[in-house]
Amino acid sequence: MIFKQGRYSGFIKPIMYLFDFSVITLVLLNSTLYLKNQYQFLLYLLITWVLISLTNKFYQTKRIANLVQISSGILRQFFSFIIVVYAYLGYFKQYYISRPELFKFFIKVFLLITLFKILMYYLLLKYRKYIGGNYRNVIIIGKNENVKQLKDIFNTKKEFGYNFKKKFNTKSSDFSLKSCFTYIKENNIDEVYCSISELSDSEISEIINFSDKNLKLVKFIPDVKKIFTKKLLFEYYDYLPVLSLRKNPLEDPVNKFLKRILDVIFSLSVIILVMSWLTPIIGFLIKRESKGNIFFKQKRSGINNKHFMCYKFRSMKENDKADLVQMTKGDTRVTRIGKFIRKTSIDELPQFFNVLLGDMSVVGPRPHMVSHTKMYADSVDRFMVRHFVKPGITGMAQVKGYRGEIEKQRDIVNRVKYDIFYLENWSVLLDIKIVFLTVFNIFKGEDKAY
């Protein structure tokens, strides 16, 4: 059976455009919006939908995209769409339009297009994995750990649609670019992946020239032994190309404002609906078992490494080592009620006051004790990058299993890698996903929740 190869199937985009156009048309024609000129409005909707989709790259879903990225694209498309619809109504003075019907129109269009897009996403994954269609033939040039990982991804993640053909070892005595180019031509290779650390400048130029002449897509695998990021920002200073090491979405004022609004809403909800009645109960149990304050406060490292006082429910007997020694499994300092509130993460609830005050966010890298920050800054590469954003009550590293006690060096190394990934790939939906996984893990129970 022969399937069409190519970065995108030739039928996917037309089908999705046709479906979306049909949904917008049918929903509008079956609504009672009381428009002056319904068909003029429909033409405006279809044209602006196309223009917005081209701007947002709505129909250019990458093979490696996940559901969070898909959902983010859908929300971005619809927010833009709603704005241009209201622009039309204001410009043409459609004062008599039915607001409830307009709301129903948006909801119906949003639900139908969202369901179809997600359905197409899953069908395409299954189509690639089980039938073998819409694939790309790929080779890899290089031999190192990153190359091995990429090869494993190609071979195990069949839903991505990559058909791995061959790996060329640059360290082999019989390696030559000429043999690679011959193989690419004879085996109809679509994409060439190269380990950039194993090739000279002249070899890279030769590969690029060959790929351009033969319409092959070439991609480079960076050496990330000491760089946890893979997101380099390419910019032009006049006509000079410049690469920045990383891009932080939360440097955008709109994103920063949106995250802050969500933090305030979320923290106020928890403080009013949960802490207002739970605090007296937890406080009574803490005071009954041991002497000392209900709340424990500790200096932690925040955004830009500025120190702040982080609040928790006290789970230990008061001791002089709280700011120096991290809690370990079976720690005798922990009280009985302390074991319970730590296991259920109730001890972290007072940090919602930190969020409300602006020292923390609901989601972000977990803040470390100041003494630990100084220690890890010297021993862990890129550790301080975490401090480009506000610390969080929960974070990506925590939902991936790297919470609590740091038993081995790899624990802190992997925590930093996930924190940097979060920093570079932040979105509202990613925050929501992390919050959901945090709640799920609390009910499921975690090995390191002690």
Concise summary:
By secondary structure, this protein is an alpha/beta fold. The protein has helices at residues 12-29, 38-56, 67-91, 99-131, 145-156, 177-186, 201-213, 253-289, 336-343, 351-357, 370-379, 396-399, 409-424, 428-444, and strands at residues 136-141, 162-168, 191-195, 217-221, 233-237, 240-244, 295-301, 307-313, 361-363, 392-394.
Q: In words, what does this structure look like?
A:
This protein starts with 11 loop residues before the first helix and ends in a 6-residue tail after the last helix. Helix 1 runs antiparallel to helix 4 (99-131) and helix 2 (38-56) packs antiparallel against helix 3 (67-91). The strands form four sheets. A four-stranded parallel β-sheet has the order 2-1-3-4, sandwiched between helices. A two-stranded antiparallel sheet has the order 5-6. It has a two-stranded antiparallel ribbon with strand order 7-8. Strand 1 (136-141), helix 5 (145-156) and strand 2 form a beta-alpha-beta unit. Residues 1-8 have low confidence and may be disordered. It has helices spanning 12-29, 38-56, 67-91, 99-131, 145-156, 177-186, 201-213, 253-289, 336-343, 351-357, 370-379, 396-399, 409-424, 428-444, and strands at 136-141, 162-168, 191-195, 217-221, 233-237, 240-244, 295-301, 307-313, 361-363, 392-394. It contains 14 helices and ten strands. The longest helix is centred in the middle third of the chain and has 37 residues, at 253-289. With 450 residues, the protein is α/β, with parallel strands linked by helices.
